[in-house]
Amino acid sequence: MSDTTVKKRVFTEEEIQALNKKYKPLSIQERIEELYKDFDVAEVMLTSSFAATSAFLLKLFSDVNKEQKVFFIDTGYHFDETLQYKRKLTEKYDLNVKSISAIKEEHEFTTKDETWRKNPDFCCSINKVRPLETIKKHYSVWVSGLMEWQSDHRSSLNIFEERGEILKFYPLLDVTKEERDEFIEKHQLPFHPLVAKGYNSIGCTHCTVPGEDRSGRWNNNPKTECGLHL
Questions:
Q1: How many CB atoms lie within 10 A of CB 24?
Q2: DSSP tag of 206
Q3: Per the residue annotation, which of 123, 124, 207, 226 is the catalytic one?
Q4: What is the pTM of this model?
Q5: Which of 1, 7, 9 is closest to 167 using CA atoms?
Q6: Tens digits of per-residue pLDDT, 98-112?
Q7: How many CB atoms are closer than 10 A to CB 83?
């Protein structure tokens, strides 16, 4: 079914609460399987940054639904290793990946202006948030691999939450770091090449340094999120 044939849905607070009650006791695999019973694949937007442990969520989805499109936001500032990792996972799990990016002139402005130095929020807005806004309006639910333990903001979420006129779905929300690592080990999932060099959260080259969890992002800046998931 094409994206244009499915009408974007809006959910009431009661419907969202019912979804949370239904999905909470399910395993991750069951949550993803149930998603495609409650939603058409054309209603589901899945994004991946092909960062440190992206293989975790991508393998789970590829096992359940090969039709699912995976959107990659190409900021123009990714590490070469990120693009290599994207190619590797796309091939390994037979992913249907589509890259989206900022308007050419706006991206070029951030390059000349070095916006990431002066105003990283604005740089993220141009190169990450805005490109996604253009496609977000076509989908009812947006899948994200966020986990509670990753930051204070993430620990306050539910499995389903309404965020900016779209229903967010966090199937991995209550997965512990140990459970994630156990799954990665069991299925021999490939890590991003920079993980071995001490990078545990990987974004754009200008704003990423080695560090534990998300401490290496936006170094020397109180910023902890790119703005996509707020």
A1: 13
A2: G
A3: 226
A4: 0.84
A5: 9
A6: 999 999 999 999 999
A7: 14
